[in-house]
Amino acid sequence: MTEIDSPHMDSPRILVLGVQPGTPPFRIVEIDGQVVGAARDVTDVLEAAAAFGITVHDLDDPDVVRWVGGDKFTWTRR
User: What is the mean pLDDT of the chain?
Assistant: First the structure.
């Protein structure tokens, strides 16, 4: 297989890291490799994306958002 034939694996612009302890718990959000803030829910992730000019149509699309340590429904430590 040549490089042209291989699947293209690009990193999504938005990375949501695992849940951190806090009151309330939160998740660190990175956009384009830079930490942009903490999210306490999905709305915070969408607002951070919008601040960087990113429109998110599907939070489950791994080409758009990578969820580490859970998914869009994971906001507390297990």
Answer: 91
